[in-house]
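Final paragraph of the annual report: two paired records, presented back to back.
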Amino acid sequence: MPEAPDDPIAYTALQQGTPVQTRDGSQFAAVQTVLVDEKVSVFDGIVVQTAEGTRFVDADQIGSIYTTYVRTTLSAEQATNLPLPD
């Protein structure tokens, strides 16, 4: 059975280029890289490409991951103040 456009997926299935949204559904970035702490196989967050460059979204700030987008728990203001990836 084919996936519906908004089926939840695991971070392991997240694709580069997937749109990233604020909590109200406004797109502010696209997934660049999924970060995993390999030592303990735990999702650490995502590096995203924004209009201002690459930024880091911590796993705690990810609300849900779907086949067609990532919804964060961030407000629009918080999304503009994300840190650079390290």
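The closing record of the year follows.
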Amino acid sequence: MITDNQVKKLKRELHQDASLETAAAQAGMDPKTARKYRALDTLPSEIKAARVREWRTRDDPFEEVWGTVEGFLEINPGLKAKTLFDHLQRSDPGRFSDGQLRTFQRKMKFWRATKGPSKEIYFPQTHHPGLLSQSDFTCMNSLGVTIAGQPFNHLIYHYVLSYSNWETGTICFSESFESLSEGLQHALWTLGGVPQAHQTDRLTAAVNKPDNPEQFTRMYQGLLDHYGLIGRRINSRCAHENGDVEQRHYRFKDAVDQALMLRGSRDFATRAAYEEFLTKLFSQLNSGRTERFRQEVKVLKALPPTRMDSCTKLVVRVGPSSTIRVKHKVYSVPSRLVGERVCIRLYAERLEVWYGQRHLETIARLRGSDRHRIDYRHMIDWLIRKPGAFAAYRFRDDLFPTSRFRMVYDALGTQHAPTKASREYLQILHLAARENEAAVDDVLQTLLDDLTTISAPVVAKHLQERTAPAPMPSVEVAAVSLHGYDQLLAHTREART
């Protein structure tokens, strides 16, 4: 088969006054074929295109029903070919076989290209240094990362500069405002400057609902104002408008996956080790963007003097059960705060309890919804006074610090009446709160292994024996004789005389 390049070479040789036989030999074709293309002004590809047939080799089996099909498509262009083909088969059983589906699909494809509705056009954009950054959350669960053998389900807040594609990210566990604030501020301070604008998708933590007159939430707008950023958000269901970060999601997760394969393990000893792994990977990805990144750094705005506190402040009242409710989750607080209003500073992974401008406690933030975290130390004093409330307490399972405490409670239940068993267990729990939970847990393990009768006094006795100070050793110091010093001084005087 003669190619376009062969014919072009033939023409060049002929223009240099080469003979037909020589030019044909140089172009790698027969002289008769060369004579043919010398007389033609077209290339082989153009001849092939001109020969494409425009007639059918067989009758169109859908010609009679195509008017009906077009009627459906004009009303709803989104109908699939398979749906309409099934409809034709049901309407006229036996007329169309399953083997004609492909023919029907080709006919519909041609109709959509020639008469169908116009398709959405994506317009490539020109990016300028320091103008725009984009961010979004991406789920990393599919990569199978584990921490100390336990699945580590998490998200990455992913930040990208649109011009240079410089990127960074932070680990988080929800698409909350606190995660957005910490992630964005970490990115800006790592970058060392501030671009003109920042764009997100329609995050509920940042963008108000359409019926709200304000485009962004009050807290997110305050964050933008603190750094002098112009906020942008994409249109609903138009993820391509945030295309830079969306594309980087795919490439970043692929890079993480490949790096984990190269590492030979997806397990990390600690979360800090995994964070260090991600930091190194971001540095490797950014190493190829140095030139464009330098151009961006020159035009970035300066950072503000300090970071903004990335927390949400809430004021809640402590209920009679010594608990507070924050974001549909229940947390216990010291019972002395019952009835008082406390200030909660809610961060991405913790919440702080403040009262009267004093920080009282830090509690790990729960993930998910309708969950609870009860600390027995907050209420043990009153549980001892009301042991009957323990058996049916709604959050009773939180009052077993370890599995051994639960085993002890079950053992006490077989030895005593329910109220007596609760009273004995609460006394043991009170020892753990007052003395040392780990030490009490060790004592319980010993008692369970020895099949010894367990009670609060027995546990207290063992605990005292373990914590009793060792007796002080007696030290005897012999009297010091100075006779040797006298002899030394006498010898010294004799030597001088």
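Residues 4 and 154 are 56 Å apart (CA to CA). This concludes the annual technical report; the extension proposal builds directly on these records.
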